[in-house]
């Protein structure tokens, strides 16, 4: 299994203001589903942040997303380790397969792969 990217999630009700603020640092909007917006550097597209007030299909907002090449293998490894799965593995209508797991420090990690 390989990590493709890691994206921190900023919990915020101020999406427009966040877009403008991070725009001053060179970020541009690359995705906006209305409930989650992702900003990226145009010169280094893997440098990203997401802004989210609430998650559309999950009970809580994750602290970060980790995109992997094999989400099923990641799910199996984390379950086998005894890690706390806080949102089950599922396919989402926007083209990702994902689950949430709590890390040892209490942070919620959205582990995903694009289909």
From TrEMBL:
PROSITE patterns: VOC
Boundaries of every VOC domain copy: 2-114
One matching Pfam family: Glyoxalase
Coiled-coil positions: none
Source domain of life: Bacteria
UniProt signal peptide: none
Name of the protein described by the UniProt record: VOC family protein
């Amino acid at each position: 299994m390989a990590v493709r990217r890691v994206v921190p999630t900023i919990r915020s009700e101020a999406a427009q203001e966040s877009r403008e603020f991070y725009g001053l640092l060179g970020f541009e909007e690359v995705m906006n589903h209305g409930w989650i917006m992702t900003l990226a550097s145009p010169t280094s597209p893997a440098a990203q942040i997401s802004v989210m007030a609430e998650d559309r299909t999950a009970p809580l907002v994750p602290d970060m997303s980790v995109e992997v090449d094999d989400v099923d293998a990641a799910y199996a490894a984390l379950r086998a380790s005894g890690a706390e799965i806080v949102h089950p593995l599922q396919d989402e209508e926007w083209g990702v397969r994902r689950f949430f797991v709590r890390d040892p420090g209490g942070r919620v990690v959205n582990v995903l792969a694009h289909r």
